[in-house]
């Protein structure tokens, strides 16, 4: 068994698609109409056959509440691995990304957390 798709709740699928593809650099894999929403997935440019990230609409009241509460508590919705957190931090700052935690060494890893503009905090990590 392996993980093939993982979801992140977003307030606006179009805005999320733009941020995750243009700012973060993920590649759109699927964009299929499903009723009033779309099945939009992205993949890492380095592993286009790897795990897909689904931009899931947060239209259900439970998802809105969940998203709002973990954001307010400073809890990242997901984590992405990067080769160099400090380099990625500088690159994203140039794109106007707002960080809630600058690169910080915690044991054997370096972490940083940013706001994805779609209702989530995202953690990047370097091992």
Automatic annotation (TrEMBL):
InterPro entries: Glyas_Bleomycin-R_OHBP_Dase, Glyas_Fos-R_dOase_dom, VOC_core. Pfam families: Glyoxalase. This is VOC family protein. PROSITE patterns: VOC (PS51819). Signal peptide: none annotated. Residues 1-127 form the VOC domain. It comes from the Bacteria. CDD domains: VOC_like.
């Amino acid at each position: 068994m392996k993980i093939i798709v993982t979801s992140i709740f977003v307030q606006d699928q179009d805005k999320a698609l733009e941020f995750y593809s243009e700012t973060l650099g993920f590649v759109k894999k699927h964009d299929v109409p499903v009723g009033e929403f779309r099945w939009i997935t992205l993949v890492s440019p380095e592993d286009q056959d790897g795990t897909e990230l689904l931009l899931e609409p947060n239209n259900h009241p439970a998802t809105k509440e969940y998203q709002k509460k973990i954001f307010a508590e400073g809890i990242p919705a997901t984590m992405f691995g990067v080769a160099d957190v400090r380099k990625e931090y500088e690159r994203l700052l140039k794109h106007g990304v707002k960080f809630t935690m600058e690169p910080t060494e915690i044991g054997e890893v370096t972490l940083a957390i940013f706001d994805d503009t779609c209702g989530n905090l995202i953690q990047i990590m370097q091992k």
